[in-house]
């Protein structure tokens, strides 16, 4: 195993090992501070970070506003308080070692005011800003206002080139590194483009070489690339370390820090990680962001998969030219919609099974659900707290109209509720548990034998050893 040399990042020599940010109260000040104390870069997720009351108890993020706009203001206030509190915890835990970054999602609701709110109150405790989930053009400008390094997350050289030309070239001195997140192997939201096949993972080496070549044309030969997604044993990445073609390389770990003593996730979630098998992490497109995402298979995702399978094209009026001639009465008044004749028996079969509610989607299709589940979906759409800049599920958008202009999509789900359930001890079978596709390695790696759960320091030491 090659020696892992320190690298200057965010103004300090650190181990080129970064804790990946995991949103909604999973990457906390405690985990980030412990990772920094071990010599690397810890990352606080500022997407719905927890804040605490005077007794140190988590303050539940309960929304009281009657309108979406009112709940949006509550969401931003929660996020700022949580981000500031977690930055303080991280700073105290790190004890001056390593570096502390915060992670924000560009497509999350209110990212710009939330980022300003956190930096204005806790900027002196933070060394860098990581941002992905979209095309974060303005993150460079915001980071520059506070004199902080920024680390965009991309999945291709083409994406970085667009960001560079539009914005980053104006703030090149503060570009601390570029995170290449493998769109097939990373956990959480993935940056697969429409031209890439989700079922055919590509070798990351040529893609990262392409990114480096683009960066070199921008005069960024000495700027680190952070490899994220699919990294487990560093010994498997020796060809990347000190590779002159790749230039300086750091490595990001998002999934492995889930299984540490400092990790805030419930014991049941940790035990589930230890029991995963290869293939138990599912790349899917149910997220209300519209992006692909990778999460642990469970009844929650299986129900979404089954709901989408119970789907047919329809028209509100008969359309013989396109073949929509088969009449299907729906609802208590039996108002008809029109299907293709081949689809009619399928729809009738689902109705006979109890999936009697035909729910309309933005794509002129119907999905069939039980009355109880359909009512839950509509209620959840109405309770939207605007956690995304644009939401397929509820049709919210952070714009003057407060809508994306499309019909709310019942094939998706409220991501805020699903992630909050996972993070705060809810029913894991009805939660969203993001994880990278190598998470099955918890059950194979001898480091975790007999259910061993390391401290963050023990994990970082293990990674440095090559394992």
What do these coordinates show?
With 467 residues, the chain is an alpha/beta fold. It folds into 2 domains: 7-283 and 442-464, Aldolase class I (TIM Barrel), CATH 3.20.20; 299-430, no CATH class. It is 29% helix and 17% strand. It has helices at residues 29-37, 68-94, 111-122, 139-145, 157-166, 204-217, 267-274, 299-309, 344-352, 371-382, 415-423, 456-464, and strands spanning 7-9, 12-14, 17-19, 41-45, 99-105, 128-132, 149-154, 178-181, 188-190, 225-228, 249-253, 281-284, 292-296, 311-313, 326-330, 335-339, 357-360, 365-369. Helix 4 (139-145) links the parallel strand 6 and strand 7 (149-154). Helix 1 (29-37) packs parallel to helix 2. The model has no long low-confidence stretch (mean pLDDT 94).
Topology:
Layout: E1 7-9, E2 12-14, E3 17-19, H1 29-37, E4 41-45, H2 68-94, E5 99-105, H3 111-122, E6 128-132, H4 139-145, E7 149-154, H5 157-166, E8 178-181, E9 188-190, H6 204-217, E10 225-228, E11 249-253, H7 267-274, E12 281-284, E13 292-296, H8 299-309, E14 311-313, E15 326-330, E16 335-339, H9 344-352, E17 357-360, E18 365-369, H10 371-382, H11 415-423, H12 456-464
Helix pairs in contact: 1-2, 2-3, 5-6
Brief account:
29% of the residues lie in helices and 17% in strands. The chain is an alpha/beta fold and 467 residues long.
Provide keyphrases for this structure:
single chain; TIM Barrel; 2 domains; 8-stranded parallel beta sheet; 3-stranded antiparallel beta sheet; 12 helices; 18 strands; globular
């Amino acid at each position: 195993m090659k020696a892992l040399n320190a690298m200057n990042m965010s103004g300090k020599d650190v181990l080129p090992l970064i804790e990946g940010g995991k949103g909604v109260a999973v990457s906390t000040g405690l985990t980030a501070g412990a990772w920094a104390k071990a010599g690397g870069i810890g990352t606080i997720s500022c997407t719905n970070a927890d804040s605490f009351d005077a007794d140190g108890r988590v303050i539940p993020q309960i929304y009281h506003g009657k309108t979406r706009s009112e709940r949006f203001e509550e969401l931003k206030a929660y996020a700022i308080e949580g981000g500031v509190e977690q930055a303080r915890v991280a700073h105290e835990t790190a004890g001056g070692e390593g570096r502390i970054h915060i992670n924000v999602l560009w497509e999350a609701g209110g990212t710009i005011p939330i980022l300003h709110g956190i930096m204005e109150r806790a900027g002196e405790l933070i060394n860098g800003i990581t941002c992905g989930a979209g095309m974060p053009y303005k993150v460079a400008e915001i980071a520059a206002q506070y004199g902080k390094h920024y680390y965009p997350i991309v999945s291709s050289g083409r994406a970085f080139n667009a960001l560079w030309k539009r914005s980053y070239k104006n703030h090149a001195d503060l570009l601390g590194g570029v995170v290449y997140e493998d769109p097939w192997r990373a956990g959480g939201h993935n940056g697969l483009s429409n031209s890439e096949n989700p079922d055919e993972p590509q070798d990351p080496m040529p893609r990262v070489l392409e990114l480096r070549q683009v960066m070199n044309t921008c005069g960024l030969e000495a700027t680190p690339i952070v490899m994220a997604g699919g990294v487990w044993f560093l010994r498997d990445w020796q060809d990347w370390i000190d590779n002159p073609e790749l230039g300086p390389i750091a490595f990001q770990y998002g999934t492995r820090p889930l299984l540490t003593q400092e990790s805030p996730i419930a014991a049941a979630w940790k035990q589930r990680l230890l029991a995963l098998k290869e293939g138990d992490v599912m790349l899917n497109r149910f997220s209300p962001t519209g992006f692909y995402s990778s999460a642990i298979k469970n009844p929650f995702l299986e129900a979404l998969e089954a709901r989408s399978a119970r789907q047919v094209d329809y028209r509100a009026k008969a359309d013989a030219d396109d073949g929509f001639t088969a009449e299907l009465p729906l609802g208590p008044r039996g108002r008809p919609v029109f299907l293709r004749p081949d689809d009619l028996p399928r729809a009738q079969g689902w109705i006979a099974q109890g999936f009697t509610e035909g729910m309309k989607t933005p794509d002129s299709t119907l999905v069939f659900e039980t009355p109880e589940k359909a009512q839950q979906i509509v209620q959840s759409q109405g309770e939207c707290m605007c956690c995304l800049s644009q939401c397929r599920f509820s049709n919210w958008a952070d714009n003057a109209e407060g809508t994306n202009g499309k019909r709310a999509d019942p094939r998706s789900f409220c991501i805020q509720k699903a992630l909050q359930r996972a993070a705060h001890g809810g029913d894991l079978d009805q939660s969203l548990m993001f994880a990278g596709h190598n998470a099955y390695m918890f059950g194979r790696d001898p480091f975790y034998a007999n259910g061993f759960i390391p401290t963050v320091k023990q994990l970082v030491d293990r990674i440095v050893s090559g394992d």
